[in-house]
Fold these 3 entries.
Entry 1:
Amino acid sequence: WKPACFFQAMQQTATHHAASWGYDFDTLLAAGQVWVLSRLRIRFDDFPTPNETAVIRTWPKGISQRVFFLRDFEFRRPDGRSLAVATSAWLLIDPAARRILRPQTLGVDVPDNGGLTALAEPLEKIAMPDDLPEALAVQAGYSAVDMMGHVNNARYVEWVCDTIPFDRYRSGRLRRLQINYLNETRPGERLLLRAGEHDGQWLVYGQNLDSSQRAFEAVAAF
Amino acid sequence: WKPACFFQAMQQTATHHAASWGYDFDTLLAAGQVWVLSRLRIRFDDFPTPNETAVIRTWPKGISQRVFFLRDFEFRRPDGRSLAVATSAWLLIDPAARRILRPQTLGVDVPDNGGLTALAEPLEKIAMPDDLPEALAVQAGYSAVDMMGHVNNARYVEWVCDTIPFDRYRSGRLRRLQINYLNETRPGERLLLRAGEHDGQWLVYGQNLDSSQRAFEAVAAF
């Protein structure tokens, strides 16, 4: 498993869990609503080998700052040993108007599970210098874009990981990753990723060269 | 499913099948042998939706041109309708010496299954002009490289698909794809993909800018 595998699994598990209480993707879309991942922070405890089984649990953790649906995740081996814990914040969006909806628009109270927590850390803005060196140019080609015409969350994680020199992976395991998704990247658009080390952390942001917006910010620690 | 999903599934299924008769990856590697995909040709009949189940069958189809292990694949829906059929050619390689081994080195006769065929088409060299326009620059970053330090077969397919304009996907479904893997791409190396239309087919090749070798050639038809 690589870091992006955890993101793919979280996306699928969250979708599956929401569908299990009636809020599947098609039902939401018919009501003019979609959930989009806004921020995610994960602590990696171990990386499974390709054929290992991971047991994933996920649960809603209430509403934050009026607009964020919080959701936590835990990944364990079948024997209970931790693989990773994560916390995430999702926005409810009107995809036609491209605006953020209040959580009440969903029409159901999402349980807060009494504050049950997998990763008890806040999902803050990332302090990001503007002068990081150029690291990688990427394009949102066909392979990066999902059915909604958006770059898949896990693909951004691949891009973040691709800015990190191979030496770094050889000398130590990735321990933590936070990524804040700021502005969507549309099909065909190009991003310039800038990255560098600050205070022992690897900082990355992606500048959309076609829209001039910042697409995402991320911080990784080894 | 996108085209690369079929390639990921084929790789896993082939590995699983070889392991089922004792030739798992670790056993082969301990004997100084690995199988690498050399050529693959696939006809797509339909693309499953994200949660659909595909039943995959694969079988060896004998030896060709003294060095190629042939292997066919078929993808079906549970009700039997075809999703895709493919034929592939694999080389047995000594990873330390980086040279091709004769199939006899494997030490077992791989059954030829009486010529049972999923896609009855030869795996030929691809006629490729040298003057295709530049389409995409990519780098073999961390996300593209597997445990062996090679770019994953499916990632090349993503790159091929990323050279094709979005308009083409909107106006018609991808019907056929052949990819010939020519020279390995090592971690960090950059490829320049050149692509264009010739006689109704989409041709792509990847030039390794660091080694000056051609990494792969591919042909797609809609």
Entry 2:
Amino acid sequence: MNENKPHNADAIDDKEARYKARMQRKKAVIDESIARADQDKGVCLVLTGNGKGKSSSGFGMVARALGHGMQVGVVQFIKGSYSTGEEAFFRRFDEVEYYVMGEGFTWETQDKTRDIEAASAAWAQAKTLLENDAISLVVLDELNIALKYKYVALDDVITAVQSRPRYQHVVITGRGAPQALIDVADTVTEMQVIKHAYQAGIKAQKGVEL
Amino acid sequence: MNENKPHNADAIDDKEARYKARMQRKKAVIDESIARADQDKGVCLVLTGNGKGKSSSGFGMVARALGHGMQVGVVQFIKGSYSTGEEAFFRRFDEVEYYVMGEGFTWETQDKTRDIEAASAAWAQAKTLLENDAISLVVLDELNIALKYKYVALDDVITAVQSRPRYQHVVITGRGAPQALIDVADTVTEMQVIKHAYQAGIKAQKGVEL
């Protein structure tokens, strides 16, 4: 037995080799799926489900796009108590067009006519963004809620999304995404609640709804 | 019949009243659950699952926190090809401490020793942030991957998360969150893939991975 080599060195070498082989196979699979994806165009992403993180994910993509010097448009269809942080932050940037629907959550305003008017105005803004090829990313935050209550017509949304500029990305958030929207989207993620802080009795924090 | 009142006005009034009552019940339920949540402390949020939006959700929370003038710390445990946008963007801000683990995805470096060294260095940074009560939000991006490969010890993470400053929020992202981490987290969301653009043959876009 070689004094300079620990008695389990062969086993370690073997393990390292297997690790490397496994990682190489993994890389090959991923590289192949990326290579297959050869359509160079903007993506329509839908973030739905009841779990936390839908809107913040959309806002993270705004940050990413700004990091690449892109122009971004945001329309918030529901002005929640927690969205003020993002609004305060992203309004600082000239590259961001930011529009917030005037009213709060529908169950806070409790006035359907006013809700519909506010949603229609927000959708008019969204449509303008979806027609502007200078805008690389459009985030339509909580649009699914407006669709669910039929404050905005689904057909209009589908048409506007499908006829938007070729390289423009669009992110649509909110629970209960309609199937027709899922059908036309490229990527759809459902956020599922595994656990929620409210259930654990933790008070919502100023600014950071986690 | 009153000439000034459309013949279906009563039906409309009735529908509006039912709508209002439904929204009031909804508001009552939500207000109550918020009122029950009376523990004023920072939240530990875990974002896991295979779907898109985990990291971007964490970065959206960074934007939200910055909008409220908070100090933020970010550690990226896996330097992905797509994370350069966020890094370029958030490094602009003095309120953000940003640390990126030196290496790429494990299946791209294919060198376990180097991966472990890089992960250990990243975790040392994370621990410093988790001990600093001037930092209101700590994002540990893709830490779950480092845990899965056992590059970082789960016990150390649990201990550091549980003994962090009382008002500090921590967001941990990455697929395959270990059960012990889910157990200590306050809010856990699982991102599920309903559809992915790669499947539809769309090329990954510079800067915006949707």
Entry 3:
Amino acid sequence: MEDQRFGLSRRVTLPGPLRLDGGAMLAPVEIAYETYGTLAPDGGNAILICHALTGDQHVASFHPRTGKPGWWTRLVGPDKPIDPARDFVVCANVLGSCMGSSGPASIDPSTGQPYAMRFPVITVRDMVRAQAMLLDHLGVATLKAVVGGSMGGMQALSWPATFPDRVRACVVIASTARHTAQNIAFHEVGRQAIMADPKWRGGDYYGHDDPPAAGLSVARMAAHITYLSEAGLTEKFGRKLQAREAKGFGFDADFQVESYLRHQGLSFVDRFDANSYLYITRAMDYFDLAEEHGGLLANAFRRTDARFCLVSFDTDWLYPTIESRHIVHALNAAGRAATFVELSSPYGHDAFLLDAPEMNRVVDGFLKGGR
Amino acid sequence: MEDQRFGLSRRVTLPGPLRLDGGAMLAPVEIAYETYGTLAPDGGNAILICHALTGDQHVASFHPRTGKPGWWTRLVGPDKPIDPARDFVVCANVLGSCMGSSGPASIDPSTGQPYAMRFPVITVRDMVRAQAMLLDHLGVATLKAVVGGSMGGMQALSWPATFPDRVRACVVIASTARHTAQNIAFHEVGRQAIMADPKWRGGDYYGHDDPPAAGLSVARMAAHITYLSEAGLTEKFGRKLQAREAKGFGFDADFQVESYLRHQGLSFVDRFDANSYLYITRAMDYFDLAEEHGGLLANAFRRTDARFCLVSFDTDWLYPTIESRHIVHALNAAGRAATFVELSSPYGHDAFLLDAPEMNRVVDGFLKGGR
């Protein structure tokens, strides 16, 4: 029972091939995932959780490398809106990532070497297709719900659009149906920071035990600013100085916000692969659900009967409320059932990962309202 | 007369020493500057223009390196609110910069080598003190007005606070009285990007003809995003692709906004020194006019009789309108005459450099309303 409580960490090699949006065929397709709870005999209790850009499959169990608790234990766990005592919870590392699923650090069977930049460029829809292959493997025909925040919300949106008959409910938190020019711009800064690091070596750094940590760290710092609100940063740090009492008149981290950001950058490189960062940001930048459906977002939702729940946060300037409204308008136009709430939080985009009792109530009520 | 029309580009070596906020003594103090027009016999027509982070003294005349017109010809020139036919216009390259004034690329007289990171850390107030030394040299006792946008606005604000009797009017556009945590965070990303570039060599790159262009370029890209509004980026680029019709499924610049940003980064390194970028961003991060005056911003304005004009732009999220409001409240508390207008523009922070007829009208009216 201990195993069940902390999730079953597994990895499956699916034969593939998986035809990707870019045209390439990927085989084999390795997927690392965790499950919590037990699939009901009628298969009706499966919930897929989709993770964000730098997330992982350890949604409600300790991360094996960092030892930290799962990233969404506030939402998934005993007596939580998603409860393994009732639900069969699946969370898979996305395609292109570096926590066990196929990505640029995986071995290319045609060469016996890591793919590096020879890994094919993927899309959010490709991630979803790989998840569907995993569900086939697990014997899950239809999802009770697919749930995700940020890039996880993009996958959640893409699910009913790609597999209209396989999902009954869709929860999209702090997300968007397409990346804006500003979203792309921030990601491009991160990619250029990585590629500018000579240790990146065109992506072929795996054999050198000396990854492009400096570039990846800068990329993470730039991205991290977009995850926080200006007000949240001011509340948490303001212009507070480090331990010293007066300004140092040098270039060490003088302000607390500087050392915080540096720490965010440095700790990130211990747990993430730079090439995966390139591939996943690219997939997010390519994401435009309307474009995939003839330029009209409503078209993405015409073939499904799924119910939708949208949640945004008022201080999220990465994927602001207006983006959720666009989705709701399209759902309305397509005649779909849609719940939408904008929640108040000082924490910006990151709010979906933090203590948000209102979010829990919304998700709980929405999931219980299902068939 | 041609010379007058296009400004007189000059450089002066002031003996100093200049005592800096950080405690160091700087000598000599070299200041590169331009003047337009003629100082009136009573000395009453001098206007000092202060430039922004990466700006220069060529406010209304062609840049000698890029060949581009002056950066504020919309505001300064014949029949403009600041007109050399009436006003004696002075614009100096700020201390710490790289267009001829003393900065990290200057020769340290004690070693005969460039200062590099041995240049003392400076503040906005130090920039203002150096400008005052230049005005002494030019025989300007009192300024009719000091005018600046962005970091130029910080200098403009610092002028009456530092030299209360030497300035009669102060125009502060798209600026702030202190850098917020988010402002500092973005600058720290830029500094880390530069310092992560191995070609930075701890700042001692001047002898190698191979500056840290990649790091400086990333720094500029990150900063550039903060100069534009999300709406402006969407209007200009949206998700438009480059010349090719379909996504490239690679890591070349696929979206127009990517190649635009890359161009911004690459063209910047031709005209700016990486160490100067470190020093000037540091000065901006240190800027907190209230802190310099006992923690109360109003105190900064109690000893001057200057009139103030504040202009903000509604889509400027770098120095949003609320920052100008803080300044106006402090001016009110100090009993100073203050005009404040928030202008509407789609262009974000950059609006102050672009065509803004309303801004011109506000500045024109304010300057004409003076004694």
